[in-house]
Specification:
Elements: H1 2-61, H2 71-94, H3 107-131, H4 137-172, E1 178-182, H5 186-196, E2 204-209, E3 219-220, E4 223-227, H6 232-239, E5 241-246, H7 253-264, E6 269-272, H8 276-280, E7 290-291, H9 308-314, E8 318-322, H10 327-338, E9 343-348, H11 351-364, E10 370-374, H12 380-390, E11 394-397, H13 404-409, H14 411-430, E12 436-442, H15 451-471, E13 505-511, E14 513-515, H16 521-530, E15 535-537, E16 543-544, E17 546-548, H17 549-562, E18 568-571, E19 577-578, H18 579-589, E20 600-602, E21 622-624, E22 630-633, H19 640-655, H20 661-668
Parallel strand pairs: 1-2, 1-5, 2-4, 5-6, 8-9, 8-11, 9-10, 11-12, 12-13, 13-18, 14-17, 15-20
Antiparallel strand pairs: 3-4, 6-7, 16-19, 18-22, 21-22
Helix pairs in contact: 1-2, 1-4, 2-3, 3-4, 10-11, 10-17, 12-14, 14-15, 14-19, 15-19, 15-20, 16-18, 19-20
């Protein structure tokens, strides 16, 4: 039965496939037959038109009375008409007047008709005068004019009829979606023409907005420019706008944010032109418009980093990315792969993410030497094995637990994975010839109120301690905090040579929340909106700094090139964003009204969460770098030996899963003040 069913299915497919060319041939034959009929009818019309025009001109000369026409003139017209008619048809065919698609008749078709009229009129004047008799002047002049008019009417009346018909049809149909275009520049004009001249949509542009006062009150393709951004709300209501296309490829991020915020209040669907390159490439069409994304509302220009130094730094080197399957780690791998490394090593505990980025990179960079390893930064034996085998020269340490509420419930795991995991990885890097170690940190490390932020501050202090010891020539004093004492001993020979000529530079990169990363608010909000709400926000006044994943990664890569050791790099992320406003904007961008279609509920601050995050501690100063948006925070001094000594006790408490872990962290991180909120 199964084989029979398969055979029937295959036969059915074959029949369908055989039918397709047959249907196509039938359609082609029908089209060719219709075209021949239209061509024949147009020729008949032209034959009548060229003869009628000169007969009417002759009749006009004799006051429109046929009986008054001189018989000599009448005989000359009758005898010359057949020859003149054949000549006209030949000229019309040579000038392709029977091949144009008159629905789209334009300036070129007009010039062809005028040329045809000039040639045929000249022939008629010479031929009739020489072969028969000199006709009255009115005959030649009005005959030429009437012939030209008849030819133009036949060919352009179809397009004129369509334009008038479509305009009346659209004006009568109230349900036709109306579009507002913001931007009367080149991009806006291209989009307007594409929409209003298209056959694939019934939408039409009703009005244009532009802040340039010199354009107000003028028209583009019969569409009025009604005013600046202050008129958006009124114009949307007046014209019944359902969609707004923002065609401002060269506008600043702040201007775009302000305009988008106004547009959102209209409740219309928003579309945005991504950037200038579409305008340069001539790709500005309605289909090129994308939905307004949440990052468009950040209100700052994206970081435009010169990646030349990054290329020179990474090219030809072995690079290790811990946590390489995560949102930040995977983007690091993508950008590193572009810069021609000698070898790229992806190290992650979660095999699904690691496998996904492995497949992506192998497909995109088939010549890349890629190693994908599964393991934990908490496993010192595994870490040492990786460093001893591959000898990475650059390490980007992105592996970490990042979810604040979960870490509050499992503080020992935050310390094991974040603080101790960083320590073990940094120690293996230091003793195996690594040149640069870049830690991915967070603004939650500043005056932390949660154990996750405190653990990341511990990571920064580990980096600063390693750097201080190396610069002092005392790398051998850094304790080996491993759970298998003696097994991972870096100085197995007992000579101390492993600590000589240490060249590893340790730095940290601190930034805020990343849009679209695992566990960030945007995916959570989108999921809640898809379910119909409510969208949950912890507090109406909670604010956060945001950046995009590519921006964060470019900063991390640049930090690797700027580093001298011990720095904490900080990104100027512009103005912070209210999470409640972010939720409302996302609801509007999804086509709903906040608190009407989708409710917003406030659930209260979670354990360890604070209303705002700082990018620097009060004690830290700032130094500039070559990039105006990247700064260096000066390290806060602390007692290195005391800190390193306390780490041993902290590790013991963490691996014993003792309840007093937070108290020990408070002793080591003076700025850590656990939140009391429930």
């Amino acid at each position: 039965m199964g084989n029979l069913s398969e055979q029937q299915e295959m036969m059915g497919k074959k029949i369908v496939e055989d039918e397709k060319p047959k249907r196509s041939l039938v359609g082609d034959r029908r089209n060719r037959r219709n075209n021949r009929i239209i061509l024949f009818m147009l020729m008949i019309y032209d034959i009548i038109a060229v003869n009628l025009s000169y007969f009417l001109a002759l009749l006009l000369r004799f006051d429109l009375k046929y009986t008054k026409i001189d018989q000599t003139y009448l005989d000359a017209f009758k005898q010359s008409a057949p020859i003149y008619t054949v000549f006209c048809i030949i000229v019309f065919m040579l000038l392709k007047l029977y091949r144009s698609i008159w629905r789209f008749a334009s300036y070129i078709e007009l010039m062809r008709i005028m040329t045809a009229c000039f040639i045929t009129t000249a022939f008629n004047c010479i031929f009739v005068t020489v072969a028969f008799v000199r006709m009255p002047l009115v005959y030649y002049v009005f005959g030429a004019i009437l012939q030209c008019v008849f030819l133009l009417v036949a060919r352009f009346s179809y397009r004129l009829f369509l334009v008038i018909y479509e305009a009346k049809l659209k004006s009568k149909v109230k349900d036709v979606p109306k579009i507002m275009i913001i931007g009367a520049g080149s991009a806006g004009q291209m989009i307007l023409r594409d929409i209003n001249r298209s056959d694939y949509t019934d939408e039409r542009v009703a009005c244009v907005i532009d802040d340039d006062e010199s354009k107000w009150g003028r028209y583009i393709e019969e569409v009025p420019v009604v005013g600046g951004r202050d008129e958006i709300m009124a114009a949307a209501k007046k014209y019944g706008i359902s969609k707004i296309y923002i065609a401002l490829p060269s506008a600043s991020a702040a201007d775009k944010r302000d305009i988008i915020n106004i547009c959102q209040e209209t409740g219309c669907v928003l579309k945005n032109l991504p950037g200038m390159y579409q305008l340069v490439l001539g790709q500005v069409t309605a289909s090129q418009m994308r939905n307004v994304a949440i990052e468009d509302l950040l209100g700052r220009e994206p970081i435009k980093a010169d990646m030349t130094d990054v290329f020179n730094f990474i090219a030809g080197k072995t690079v290790l990315v811990t946590g390489g399957g995560g949102s930040i780690g995977s983007e690091l791998c993508r950008q590193i792969a572009k810069h021609n490394p000698k070898r790229l090593i992806i190290f992650d505990i979660y095999e699904n993410n690691a496998y996904a980025i492995q497949l992506e990179l192998r497909e995109k960079y088939p010549n890349l030497k890629l190693e994908t390893l599964i393991g934990s930064v908490r496993d010192s034996r595994k870490i040492f094995q990786v460093f001893q085998k591959y000898r990475p020269e650059i390490v980007y340490h992105a592996a970490a637990h990042k979810h604040v509420p979960l870490m509050e419930d499992s503080p020992c795991e935050a310390i094991k994975n974040n603080a101790i995991g960083t320590y073990k990885t940094a120690y293996a890097a230091m003793t195996n010839g690594c040149e640069r170690f870049v830690l991915i940190s967070t603004d939650k490390a500043v005056n932390p109120t949660n154990i996750m932020g405190a653990s990341k501050r511990l990571c920064e202090m580990v980096i600063q301690s390693f750097d201080a010891k190396i610069k002092a020539g005392k790398a051998n004093e850094i304790p080996q905090l491993f759970t298998h004492e003696g097994v991972e001993n870096a100085d197995k020979e007992g000579t101390g040579n492993v600590y000589k000529n240490i060249k590893t530079q340790f730095v940290a990169v601190r930034f805020g929340n990343v849009l679209g990363s695992n566990g960030s608010v945007i995916p959570i909000f989108k999921s809640q909106i898809e379910k119909g709400g409510p969208v949950t926000v912890t507090h109406p006044d909670i604010i956060r700094y945001f950046m995009t994943i590519p921006e964060a990664v470019s900063l991390v890569l640049l930090a690797g090139t700027y580093a001298n050791g011990g720095e904490i790099f900080v990104l100027d992320m512009g103005s912070p964003v209210k999470i409640a406003d972010l939720a409302r904007n996302l609801i509007r961008l999804s086509g709903y009204k906040p608190d009407v279609d989708i409710k917003i509920e406030y659930t209260g601050l979670r354990p360890g969460e604070k209303l705002f995050e700082e990018k620097l501690m009060a004690e830290e100063g700032l130094k500039k770098t070559d990039n105006d948006l990247i700064h260096i925070g000066q390290p806060i001094p602390f007692e290195t030996d005391e800190f390193l000594g306390g780490l041993g006790k902290l590790m013991e408490l963490a691996y014993e899963n003792k309840d007093g872990i937070k108290e020990q962290v408070q002793k080591m991180v003076s700025t850590y003040h656990p939140a009391e909120n429930k």
